[in-house]
Specification:
The chain is α+β, with helices and mostly antiparallel strands.
């Protein structure tokens, strides 16, 4: 039976991540990077597309589970008729090769255990050749090689193109499995000690968590979201992926299935603000530096997203051998939205560097000249229609949020030049641009009869992105047009107290059939806007409702379906967890998030 999206927990090593189900099965893992091909892809197909399950013989879902302290080390416990057993799953931060460590420990009584490993390289399509070597089971196919061993050794055999193990654990007894990937043309990497790795992993995570300076309300929820964001960070470059998955559906059974294993510029300002506000200056600097490298070049070539190291080519294709999560096909890898024109990203990039300067991060050579080049380009393009924040695959429009972010770009340049007269730049030029954008948005993007900003010029549709107008400073929170927009968005896009990003039932906007759930980050934006417009108690109630939607280990996907009571979309979603952190800081009156 298919696990719900929220039935999965995340483990990772800051270069890739795996999803572990409540039934003890790892159903998704890309090696060696977040954006590599998956060797376990049953999440998007069936068991024959690759998985690794360790659980008591004949058992279903675990009785309970949780992370050990402030870490990404997962402990799952089964209470059976004959005894109690736990499985500890984690991925140690790698020295050379990625490892998955699974430690089975008897708690009481005696429990029979089974392990079933089905490796399927290239997103579940390639069955490897298995052999024995030096106490390992070795799987090889093309460029991929995986080594599996257990300590102590247990009975292991091949069955129906899988590797099976069976053993019994009594109270205090332990069996550790270590799965290691490396390129098949290279020698086997050094062995890791599973128990030392567990100790070091817990120490590393606890030391990282101890650097958090936030001590306000909802600290436990904030800390779990920060750990999740850290787990979605590609350590070698500092890039943060939107999610570690592809093609988890926004509409189960539909076609709204996208690959999120890349780094989006739209996240940059909120990520930086959140990290800086809670004391993670090194992570903020690494993300800022990734951003600077990624966007370097001709401003006309600025993309909305990049690969983990700033790669630009992310061609989209489909994997027809995978049936999709709950039949949601096609399964896609790559993302054609990379080629869209989204003018808001210029504002988000320039605002990110502004936030960095205001927080005192050490300046980078040529960063300001790059920003001036981006502004030069934006000055000539901001009047054009684009695909907008939500990456619609319908016709281009004059999206209000895109224009507002063009205003942000000019505004941050003006503020920077006014604060530092030694910098180059024509402050009057950017004041003029700022005023022109502001005037046009207020004239063409505002509906005076309904007292709300609309999704695009001349449209009656609304957009949750307009909730950001007071946060970015385009208008003050007490402006009647802001209050009206907040009320209109809540009334027209609200569903069971949460918020959709836009309507999918009216005139075709995004060029796609089907529907989608409420968008979690937009619901956090509504809480922020309610607080800023003086309705703090309503904001707090909404925030606590959103906290209640997290799964048992504190994770959020991209969307939530209030009718079905389930999470939807790629998972866990960085944007949702950023929204949680920012709203907690907003309600606490802490820091400079956003």
């Amino acid at each position: 039976m298919t696990q719900r999206i929220e039935d999965y927990a995340l483990i990772g090593d800051l270069q890739t991540a795996a999803l572990v189900g409540m039934d003890g099965s790892i159903d998704w893992l890309c090696l060696p990077r977040f954006d590599s091909a998956a060797c376990f892809a049953s999440l998007l197909g069936d068991e024959d597309n690759g998985h690794w399950r360790i659980a008591p013989t004949g058992a279903g879902d675990c009785t309970r589970r949780g992370y050990l302290g402030d870490s990404l080390v997962l402990e799952s416990v089964w209470e059976t008729r004959t005894g109690v057993v736990k499985v500890i799953d984690f991925m140690p931060q790698r020295d050379v090769a990625p490892d998955v460590v699974r430690i089975v420990e008897g708690v009481s009584g005696s429990v029979d255990m089974d392990s079933t490993l089905k490796l399927r390289f290239d997103f579940g399509s390639v069955v490897p050749w298995m052999r024995r070597s030096d106490g390992h089971r070795v799987a090889v196919a093309g460029p991929d090689s995986v080594w599996l061993r257990s300590e102590p050794a247990v009975k292991t055999w091949g069955q129906q193109f899988s590797t099976r193990s069976s053993f019994t654990v009594g109270e205090g007894e332990k069996v550790a499995f270590v799965l290691t990937w490396h390129p098949s043309h290279e020698p086997r990497p050094p062995l890791v000690d599973p128990y030392e790795s567990l100790e070091h992993s817990l120490e590393d995570w606890e030391a990282w968590a101890a650097r958090c300076t936030y001590e306000g309300p909802y600290r436990a929820a904030v800390m779990r979201s920060l750990i999740t964001l850290k787990g979605l960070t590609y350590g070698p470059t500092g890039g943060i992926v939107a999610a570690p998955t592809t093609s988890l559906p926004e509409d189960p059974g539909g076609v709204r299935n996208w690959d999120y294993r890349y780094c989006w510029l739209r996240d940059s300002t909120l990520v930086l603000g959140a990290l800086l506000s809670v004391g993670y200056l090194d992570e903020a600097a690494a993300w800022r530096d990734w951003l600077l490298r990624a966007v370097a070049g001709d401003p006309a070539d600025l993309q909305i997203m990049y690969g983990l190291a700033g790669e630009r080519r992310l061609p989209e294709s489909e994997l027809p051998w995978l049936s999709g999560y709950e039949g949601s096909a096609p399964v896609r890898i790559g993302n054609n939205a990379v080629d869209q024109l989204q003018l808001d990203v210029y504002g988000e990039v320039i605002d990110s560097f502004h936030v960095s300067r205001m927080a005192g991060l050490s300046p980078k050579p040529h960063a300001w000249s790059l920003q001036l080049a981006l502004l030069d380009f934006l000055e000539s393009k901001w009047r054009e229609p684009d695909e907008g924040l939500w990456e619609v695959r319908g016709p281009r429009r004059h999206f209000v949020h895109s224009k507002v972010m063009a205003w942000v770009a000019a505004d941050r340049a003006v503020r920077t030049l006014e604060a530092d007269h030694s910098r180059s730049g024509d402050v009057q030029r950017w004041r003029t641009m700022r005023d022109e954008v502001h005037r046009e948005v207020c004239e063409k993007g505002y509906d005076p009869e309904r007292n709300t900003f609309t999704q695009s010029y001349g449209s009656a549709e609304l957009d949750a992105a307009t909730l950001l107008i007071p946060r970015v400073g385009f208008l003050p929170p007490d402006d009647p047009r802001v209050v009206g927009t907040v009320d209109a968005v809540r009334a027209e896009l609200g569903q069971s107290g949460l918020v959709r990003r836009y309507s999918t039932t009216g005139p075709e906007v995004d060029g796609l059939p089907g529907d989608e759930g409420t968008f979690l980050v937009c619901s956090f934006w509504l809480a922020d806007a309610l607080h800023m417009t003086g309705r703090t108690e309503e904001a707090r109630e909404l925030f606590e409702r959103l906290l209640s939607l997290r799964n048992d280990v504190g994770l959020l996907a991209e969307e939530y379906d209030p009718a079905a009571g389930r999470q939807l979309g790629n998972y866990p979603q960085a944007f949702s967890h950023i929204g949680l952190v920012v709203t907690a800081l907003t309600l606490a009156g802490t820091g400079t998030a956003g």
